[in-house]
Amino acid sequence: MANPRAVWAFLVSLLALGVLVGGAVVAHLREEVGLYEAIAAVPLGGLLGLVALSLARRARFEHQRTLGRAGGRILAALGRFLGGIAVLAAITAALALVVFAVLTLALD
Question: Whole-prediction pTM value?
Answer without folding.
Answer: 0.88
